[in-house]
Amino acid sequence: MAGQVGRDRVPAALAQCVLAASAAPHATWEPMNEITANTVLPARREPVVLHSADGHDLVGELALPEARDPVATLVCLHPLPTAGGMMDSHLLRKAAYRLPALADLAVLRFNTRGTASDRGRSGGEFGGGEHERYDVAAAIGFCSARGLPRIWLLGWSFGAELALKWGNVPEVEGAILVSPPMRRAGQAELDAWAASGRPLIALVPELDDYLTPDQAERLFERVPQSRVVGVKNAKHLWVGETYVRIALNEIVRVMNPAAWPLPETSEDLL
């Protein structure tokens, strides 16, 4: 079984799609509104700076439920920064804008080293997935120091590989991998997760550029506590509210089943 599956090319549209999504206008929350791509639900939001062990400051944001303590914590690891990935990549931004209010989750998102967004630029330079080990550790350490409960990693594309490579540590309860390319991580990392007993959930688009659901099923067989969710008609970038809702619902089903399925309108929240 090959440790790396799929093609090596990065889709040319990645940077344009991700950056365009991050620049979309934000819709304010009003009663009876449908929850749409630009909805921002109430939360306590604070800018944060993480400090890596090798001396870099990493900019980010922590979003908490507005009036309650969180029941679990989602640490977001963004797609490939050299192709436009950042903390504002649309799926991670929508998780931060919705899940504190809808599912009582704390959501931490940040820019890995050398990555820039509206929040600012993190120190250092892109490390190809190796030096980012310190960034992942800084995010986990920040959550532990703040006393945030039940840390889960949400890695999208490159971020999924960071989760597999560097997130298998005692402080982490499990990981949700969105569109994992499996180029930088492979059998050795999967075997380590299998030995740890920590759950892995892989959300794999039917039309992904790198790894199909069938390929993922075969690859993740070596992790007994893993589950592969194939998403019909979805693509690597999860463009479209239909696919965003599927991904967020799967996250919540794992982390806070009492809040699943997520409401789609404000009426459902009343």
Overview of the structural elements:
It contains 7 helices and 10 strands. It is an alpha/beta fold and 270 residues long. It has a single domain (30-269), classed as Rossmann fold, CATH 3.40.50. The longest helix has 15 residues, at 241-255.
Brief write-up:
This protein has seven helices and ten strands.
What characteristics describe this protein?
270 residues, alpha/beta, Rossmann fold, 8-stranded mixed beta sheet, two-stranded antiparallel ribbon, 10 strands, 21% strand, globular, disordered N terminus
- Give, in spatial order, the strands making up the sheet with the most strands: 1-2-4-3-7-8-9-10
Q: What is the helix tally? A: 7
The share of residues in helices is 25-40%
Tally of separate domains: 1
**Can you tell me the CATH class?**
Alpha Beta
CATH architecture: 3-Layer(aba) Sandwich
Backbone structural class: alpha/beta
Q: What is the CATH homology-level superfamily?
A: Alpha/Beta hydrolase fold, catalytic domain
Please report the total strand number as a whole number: 10
**Straight-line distance between termini:** 50 Å
Beta-strand proportion:
15-25%
Largest sheet: 8 strands, mixed
Average pLDDT taken over every residue: 90
Query: N-to-C SSE series?
Result: HEEEHEEEHEHEHEHEH
- Which descriptor suits the 3D outline? globular
